[in-house]
Amino acid sequence: MPSSDGNKRTSRPIRILHVLGCMDRGGVETWLMQILRHIDRSRFQMDFLVHTARPGAYDDEVQSLGARIIPCLGARQPWTYATNFMQHLKCYGPYDIVHSHVDAFSGYVLMLARRAGVAQRISHSHSNTMRQRKLAHTARRVYLKVTGEAIRRYATLGLAAGPQAAEALFGPEWIEHPRRSLIYYGCDLGPFHDHLDANDVRAEFGIEPGEIVVGHVGRFSEPKNHGFFIDVAAEVARLEPRSRFLLVGEGSLRPFIEQKIRASGLSSRFVLTGARDDVARLMIGAMDVLLFPSLWEGLPMTLIESQAACLPFVGSLAVPEEGIVVPWLTRRLDLAEPVFHWAQAVLDAARLRGQVDPLRALELMEESPFTVAKSVTALAEVYESLVDPPIAKAA
User: Could you give the number of structural domains in the chain?
Assistant: First the structure.
């Protein structure tokens, strides 16, 4: 059944088209999936336009909840993409709002949406890509300049997962801009209340009682920095013979990561689970510490989930401080620090496992801005505020 956050119903749903790469199990996609599950679907009709014909992990559930997956190909061929995009809006629309999640490419998406007559257009920044922008080659800088100008011109609203993500896409002036604001990721805390037998969970992966498990949850992609994870893992394995490593996720870089694991002689220590729909269960029952050495982030859902699981977290400085709700569980290090320091921090954090009251951690998370209920309410208010004049209220 659709949930309700107390707002009045409209005579017809507000129709929103989300634009993103694919509905796989990534942070952005998981957040959108949780929004779809909990938002009042009698008031908000969401569809998902994706840039691939490959099925996504969430596609079946998306469609079971009354939303549509609309493949729009040709993102690397602007004219082809424009033709496909316009045809899809004509076929599946009209939409009240186009909500784009594809970073700089949102400029092109929203320009097309404007030409198609969509009145409200949202550019949503999910990651702090300032470092990559500074290192960009000339052609990339030209692209970023053009798309940035398109966002400024065609986005009627800019949203971001956190302040650093906002600055990366909208510039430092975002904070004074009346049409720029933050929407924090919200986590469904229900699964984190489950009581589990850790030995049973670990046994599924051949992990023995007493072994220290260092985990990671995230797509096998450049920003997650799995290569550095393996470097740290090698040092942890040297310091602690009982250590094991659990990688949860899928992605295009998985073959390269598997190759590096073999080259490091650590194959017997690693378990790669693939994409999973039971992340809370694995955090609570299988892991002792989460290692998250990202090159760049917005505000990672994994940070929110790990604190809800009362799981110690060691991450890079790319992980924003505003996402830290349970500070004694979290530690941030500079990636320039020696690998030995990272390994020692991981082992120190692992010793905290079981020393922090999980009910207290959950209580703090429930009081934080990072719950799905608060996220749904905030996003629903944004959507309703954009429909102007308002859709007529039911009598």
Answer: 2
| Same domain, residue pair 322 and 381 | no
Sole residue written with tokens 């942890």:
236
In sequence order, what E strands does 51-168 have?
Answer: 69-71, 97-100, 120-125, 157-160
Q: Considering Cα of 193, then 197, then 198, then 200, what sign does the dihedral take?
A: negative
Let me know whether 359 and 232 are in one domain: yes
Q: Across residues 121-127, what is the average pLDDT? A: 96
Tell me the torsion sign for CA atoms 328, 279, 322, 292. positive
Tokens 């290090």 map to which residue?
333
Q: Residue 392: is its pLDDT beyond 80?
A: no
Q: Check pLDDT > 90 for residue 1.
A: no
Confidence (pTM): 0.89
* Residues facing residue 107 across a β-bridge: none
| Nearest C-alpha neighbor of 48 from the set 15, 77, 81, 79 | 15
pLDDT digits (tens, 9 = 90+) for 320-354: 999 999 999 999 999 999 999 999 999 999 998 87
User: Which residue range(s) make up the domain with 297?
Assistant: 190-367
CA dist 309 and 203 (Å) reads 19
